[in-house]
Write a structure and sequence with these properties.
The structure is a single chain. With 119 residues, this protein is mostly helical. The protein has one domain (5-117). It is 74% helix and 0% strand. The protein contains four helices and no strands. Helix 3 (59-79) packs antiparallel against helix 4 (90-117). The protein is elongated and about 50 Å long.
């Protein structure tokens, strides 16, 4: 079974949109999980990067995705300085960026695994 590229790409872009919205929502209005904040950051960026890596299947695209998600993580942390009930932390941006990097690796592995088994 193959997943259409449009669906995978849409999932990646939805992940970016969700990161932006959830990063800029005031603290009292943001949904919370039982996970530590850094784990939420890591998972959000990792899953988004995986979808984007699987949707955009070149190494050049993967580099752009990692750089873009790193810039997104940094800008979201800076913008949180002006969002009530939120705090900004360099460590959050680092964890988010590492999640994005791992997501690219995982997405690339999945892509190459499927490419090797597809006739």
């Amino acid at each position: 079974m193959t997943i259409p590229l449009a669906i995978v790409r849409a999932a990646g872009f939805f992940g970016v949109l969700a990161i932006i919205v959830l990063s800029l929502v005031p603290g009292a209005d943001r949904p919370h999980t039982d996970l530590p904040g850094k784990a939420e950051h890591f998972i959000a960026y990792c899953s988004t990067a995986s979808a984007l890596a699987f949707g955009f299947r070149t190494r050049a695209a993967w580099i752009r995705i990692v750089v873009g998600l790193t810039l997104l993580a940094t800008s979201m942390e800076l913008l949180q300085l002006w969002v009530p009930g939120r705090h900004s932390a360099i460590s959050d941006a680092v964890v988010s960026s590492l999640g994005g990097l791992l997501g690219i690796v995982l997405g690339g592995v999945v892509f190459f695994r499927f490419a090797a088994t597809t006739p």
